[in-house]
Amino acid sequence: MLDLSRLEESKLDLKKETFDLNTLVNETIQDLQHTSTSHTINLSQNFGANVKGDRDRIQQVLINFINNAIKYSPDKKLVEIMISEAENNQVKISVKDFGIGINKVDQSKIYERFYRVSGKNEKNFSGFGIGLYIAKEIIERHQGTISVESKIGQGSTFSFSLPIEN
């Protein structure tokens, strides 16, 4: 909620530094794998890159994506993460789950503040509807993009791309 307040007042400070994004992803997966033993988190990386940004804020986005993947796929125990090269000198991080999925109508709204997907299955999942809103703001403030691909009953892939630091 504090981050939400800071965003609204345009006071979310970013402490930008150059860092190895692959190392950050690996460290984050290791940390989360210790706290969430219900799911296996697999990493596939065919590209390595340094980015200039706020390491903690980028990690916050990654944690949000992975925690959502785990939360919304209670019956499937696998989360896949991919680091790949993207267009326009960018690196892309994708987090794929095999859970409940998101219908097309809701996909365009999930980044709105306090938006919660509604439906019979979604009532079982807690949250305030601010995680993806904050994630989108963080990525956009790093001149990056955020996206989702999803099909009901087949899962979702949330991705973000960031400019590569040369």
Global mean pLDDT: 86
Instruction: Classify the helix fraction into a percent range.
Output: 25-40%
The rounded distance between the terminal residues' Cα atoms is 35 Å
The CATH class designation is: Alpha Beta
What is the annotated CATH architecture?
Answer: 2-Layer Sandwich
Strand-residue proportion: 25-35%
Task: Describe the main β-sheet briefly.
Answer: 5 strands, mixed
Labels describing this entry:
5-stranded mixed β-sheet; two-stranded antiparallel ribbon; Heat Shock Protein 90; single chain; 166 residues; 5 helices; alpha+beta
Protein architecture, described:
With 166 residues, this protein is of the alpha+beta class. It has a single domain, classed as 2-Layer Sandwich (Heat Shock Protein 90), CATH 3.30.565.10. Helices cover 32% and strands 28% of the residues. It contains 5 helices and 7 strands. It has helices spanning 2-8, 21-35, 55-71, 104-107, 131-140, and strands at residues 17-20, 40-45, 50-53, 78-86, 90-96, 145-151, 155-163. The strands form 2 sheets. It has a 5-stranded mixed sheet with strand order 2-4-5-7-6, with helices on one face. Strands 1-3 form a two-stranded antiparallel sheet. A hairpin with a 3-residue loop joins strand 6 and strand 7 (155-163). The longest helix has 17 residues, at 55-71. The chain is globular, with a radius of gyration of 15 Å.
